[in-house]
Design a protein that fits this description.
Layout (H helix, E strand, L loop, with lengths): L1 H23 L19 H34 L8
């Protein structure tokens, strides 16, 4: 929670500095208070593991649905259509 509040505070300060530069019409760009930080929320190895598990679960569920659909189609096609007399 402290990190989020700190992030919010630095974003607000950055906006204030940017507005100050635009208002006073100073030449150049406003200085960056914090460099761009690209921290992922989840470690890449953990993410790959989770995705592999989810893919396996989805695949096993999807195969069951396909088999059921195919069985229904086969049973419906086994009925012989006889022309009316």
């Amino acid at each position: 929670m402290r990190v989020l509040i700190s992030d919010l505070e630095s974003s607000i300060n950055q906006c204030r500095v940017g507005i100050l530069y635009k208002t006073i019409e100073l030449p150049g760009r406003a200085p960056q208070l914090l460099g761009t930080v690209n921290n992922p929320l989840v470690d890449q190895e953990k993410l790959d593991t989770l995705l592999a598990i989810k893919k396996a679960e989805w695949h096993s569920r999807n195969i069951g649905k396909k088999k059921h659909f195919q069985q229904c189609q086969q049973s419906a096609s086994n009925f012989a259509l006889t022309p009316p007399k």
